[in-house]
Inverse folding.
């Protein structure tokens, strides 16, 4: 299992170096309103939609690489803490990817608690809670006679992007596109593919995708490919 947080606005990927120490809490709740009736007492009435989902887990940032780490070139523990806290301070919503749970969605970091345990030389333990991000669409009346907008202005930022699934084929549009070990520019370059090369998608990670490339696969940025 691999867990990523991706800041798509800055094309920055943080992969947690150590998997959760116990379990991942990933509940899904329906919305109900409770009404008191004379004949039956309290009854629950199902409402449209679902409650915001909270995903939480505990782990730690190790001072040095060990066999339980998900990759070799780990950052210093305080660097991981700094990145996560900067996202919280700037209200940045990030994309959460958990491979084994097939989770790939935008979230806000609602709670992050780092701590240093006695006897742990430099390791930083933490708990983190993430809440599903839902973009609010607001329509504002600007001119009832406007022909172009029909009297409505859509203030929603367009964050739409193509979605890819296993088996989709894409063609490289850049003159040369790097293939990397992971979904981000911080990962080592494994090689490159030239303009017009066709690649087969395995799994999408935000604006990156793992592809069937070479003997072991590799990640490419989806900004420089187009669907075939």
């Amino acid at each position: 299992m691999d867990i990523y947080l991706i800041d798509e606005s800055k094309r920055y990927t943080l992969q947690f170096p150590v998997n959760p120490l116990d379990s991942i809490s990933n509940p899904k709740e329906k919305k109900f309103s409770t009404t008191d009736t004379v004949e039956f007492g309290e009854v629950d009435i199902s409402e449209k939609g679902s409650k915001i989902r909270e995903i939480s887990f505990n782990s730690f940032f190790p001072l040095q690489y060990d066999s339980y780490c998900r990759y070799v070139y780990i950052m210093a523990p305080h660097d991981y803490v700094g990145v996560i806290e900067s996202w919280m301070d700037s209200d940045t919503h990030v994309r959460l990817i958990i491979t084994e749970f097939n989770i790939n969605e935008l979230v806000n970091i609602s709670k992050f608690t780092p701590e240093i345990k006695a006897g742990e030389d430099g390791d930083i333990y933490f708990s983190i809670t993430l809440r599903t991000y839902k973009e609010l669409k607001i329509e504002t009346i600007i001119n009832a006679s406007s022909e172009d907008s029909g009297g409505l202005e859509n203030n929603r930022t367009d964050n739409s992007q193509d979605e890819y699934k296993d088996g989709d084929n894409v063609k490289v549009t850049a003159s040369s596109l790097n293939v990397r070990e992971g979904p981000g520019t911080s990962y080592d370059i494994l090689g490159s593919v030239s303009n017009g090369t066709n690649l087969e998608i395995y799994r999408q990670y935000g604006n990156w995708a793992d592809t069937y490339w070479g003997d072991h696969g590799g990640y490419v940025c989806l900004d420089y490919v187009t669907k075939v």
Summary: Confidence is low (pLDDT under 50) at residues 138-160. The helical segments are 77-89.
